[in-house]
Queue: 4 jobs
Job 1
Amino acid sequence: MKNISSLAFHRSSAVLRASLFGVLFLTSAVAGDWQIGVIDPGIGGEYSSLRLDKYGNAHVAYADSVNANLKYAFWDHSLDKWFITTVDRTQGFCSLILDSHQYPHISYLDYGTGGIKYAYWNGATWQKQRIQIVAKQILFYTSIALAPGNLPHITYYEYEDAEGNQELHLRDVSWIGTQWEVRTVDPTPGSGKFNSIVADSSGTLHVAYGNVKYEDASLRYATWNGRSWDVEILEGAGRPGTTMWSSTLVMDKLDRPHIAYTDVRNRVVKYATKPGEAWSTEVVDSLVKEGYPDRNGIALDEAGNPYISYYDAGAGLLKMAHRVDGHWLVEVVDRNYAGFTNSLQIHGHTVWITYADERTKDLKFARRSIDVSPPLQQSTQVIRERLPRSEKSDAGVFQKREGVYRNDRPR
């Protein structure tokens, strides 16, 4: 296989694709405006990381927890088919990014070693390596970004150092052209169990992450200044127990950050952004119960409007929220405990979500057009957050607003 992106245009490569990936023909169901289908059945499908290339093809890395495998799925938009291959063994917690050639790069936990690995497609084969890091145990989420020149940068949660001492802090490892360089992003214990790294248009690295230890629990943000990491506490400073999970970061066309995260204490999904000098945060929706260790999804449409996907583990619902005229419009995407560790992306006028079904153990996808909002299935009601009118975040004034909620609860 010479070029993954060329799969979209060369039907003659179907035989080669079948031999490399193995073809999975989908039977998709339409729920309202959402098209929902199974990518890979009965294998767990956790920690999916989705990217859409410039041709409209979908790339997904995910964990096959049944067989402890890292798998990769490719959807050819011209054939409307998924192709699946096993890349390596893994403990889970993978992250995928596409390079300038639209080739996939993946960070993931190594199987049985407590280490971290990196794999990428070079146009012909998968290249894999275990990154040599002096640590006994790396656990939970990894995240990958590519700087100019397609140089990988990976954030991870160092659980134990080489001597077995609990470190519980966020570090990053970067390929600098000849070797891997390891740096500590935030030495505060508990920082980085949930982390998301992005490179902006200039190649500057940004990380959104949560600190999960009670005394320092908070939402944090770090920026690489060329010599060290500058760390900000966006929410939770001086308020022990303000635990923030499931943080996911995206940058807009003007290199402004947008973060989706879960406020565990208040059981709400939140959104943070920095349109100017100050951060602003707002509530998106409430949860019956948060998933663990879950991940939210976030992407921006062509106009820069945020779309956020999240899983209500108590209600068993996958939801998506997007802003309309300053309000959050919330809709149910899937039910019956499907939606764990979801990932969201937008290409043109189509939004995609990949996620695990906790009941069937399938890796699933959902997609729909975002040209118009789907029709209300019952009624529209206004939800007012049950928060003090004058509440403030550590980043600035908490923005009160009314959100429109689609009254589409399970019967």
Note: The two ends are 49 Å apart (CA to CA).
Job 2
Amino acid sequence: MGRRVTHFAMYDWRVNLSKVDMNKFSVALLADRLDLLSEIAGWFESEWPAHYGAAGSACALIDLQAYADRDDLPLGLLILWDDKPCGFGALKKEPFPTHPDLFPWIGAGYVKPELRRKGIGAALLTALEELAMKQKIPRVYCATSTSASLLIRCGWQLRDKVDHEGQETGIYEKAL
């Protein structure tokens, strides 16, 4: 299947999407879909139980409410398929603990497990990069212990490797 160019509502964004028929996909600011906060909080709690679970130190719903802005960081983005959420990511202002001097960060990336490895994560990452460009941000950062290959495929550069909570974590950057 060839690459498709998808228009996103609210912004004049164009993102090349592949590996999946994106005719029914769209991107929305979390601020425009507050009705989905509980569902996305459930994703966070199941994906990151040590942080958001019962014994965790954070509240997924509170973090998501912070991402529900339209104009200022942090900003949350959803990928929707037939108006149903299938992925989330955020452009964040809070620093990664090992690199407090770097700003801003793309994080909280999540794609529903049954839809992974189909290009949706790359589309979400690209939409977040474009959101950063709309905010006149020249460079973005991302910390990951699980998605290095996605970042590299999307043109990100490894800046550093650190131990974070017992896991080797890559610190990546991308000039926009």
Note: The longest strand covers residues 84-92.
Job 3
Amino acid sequence: MPSEKHIVLSRMALVWLENKATQRGIRGCEEVILGNGYVCDSAAICGLQMAWEKQFVGVDRLNDAADDYSFVFETKVSRSDFLKTFAKNGHIGDRLIQKANFHFVVAAKKIVSADEVPDFWGLLEESRGGLKLVKLPKYLIRTKEQLHEFGYILLRSGHSRKFTYNIEIKPEKYFGSNLLWNKRREFTDLPNSEQNVHGSVATMPNSSNDADKQIKQNPFGG
């Protein structure tokens, strides 16, 4: 079973992304099988707000912009954890194969540098109660058919896992007490989210929700 901090960072990645999504929000889940030896820690589909679309896609490539983008997150909580997966002799599996528009390593503080992540991967690092963007991932164009396949994988993953981790999540232990979560409050218990267990497809709060305003006031950086 993943550590408490690993679970929190994986869920923080989806919250980080929700702050950059359009008002339609995101559709995402955790522990998604994407290929041979490749189970990503979280994945999602969403549209991007214009400012973030320009940054992620690039102003000179906006002709390639899409209504929705796919995201993959790989969480690492220690140096050894990162090397176990991404070192040359690690269990990298299909992680060097393009699976989404954007790929991110989500890392605990100061365990990995930007030049150590694979070429087309970005890097998010824990910082000030949230995550900061250290390295932008490369924008990889995906066909509509590939996006639909990715969405099907999310749907299948969300509805095939009916388990949850029976631990007491205390994000404030790692990120400070100003998070929206409280003791024993699960990611899918956020106001206006669909009631799902860990691993289910989650709808994040929309921008008109008070909880969304509260979460946007939190310094998630990047």
Note: The longest strand covers residues 21-35.
Job 4
Amino acid sequence: MRNSLSPLAWFQLICVLLGLMLLNSPVTADSGHKEVNEKDIHFFPTTEISLGDFPAEGPILDIGGGGEGIIGRLKGSQVVAIDINERELAEAPDGPLKIVMDASELKFLDNSFNCVTIFFTMMYIPAELHGKVLGQCARVLKPGGRLMIWDMNLTAQPSGAKKIAAIRLKIQLPGKTVKPGYGTHWPAKALDAAHYKQLADSCGLQVSAETDNGSTFYLELKKP
């Protein structure tokens, strides 16, 4: 994930990502585990994201900060990176404080952070937990604090569409370029910017900035 990859390597990457997602999703004992076939993956066009060194006071809570650890790469030791997957945290670049933790049950006190980030992580969290995760983010944010979300604009699976939606990103960080890829099963209902804005409103968060790039979006939510 840290270098430019061939088409075959991208396919292998998506298989690994989906395997991790399945391992960390609630399943029954008799659930089948089917192999991913390349013909079942729909790749959205490569999307470029310019991620500058945004201002933030105090520690930044990064939800799903394992793996590529994009926010950790950008903000270093200012970041508290949590992830439910210990291996993903171990693989993330050094710098942030890394803690194994479930985003739907944050162990931090109320009003602990001025900034919370979620970078292409919500797509891997079961949709029924999205409201709880955003509620926990709102709880640990200080008044005036902000929640920053980057993710895919996923519609419900179109008729005849391939089973898996995936995207390659070209992320411009100060002084470096990172090219990760993300993939997930098409959701039963739309998981787009509108979905998260509705949940944010129910948690008392207000939209302060929004960018829609078609296949991806950025939301900045403020706690009054």
Note: The chain has five helices and eleven strands.
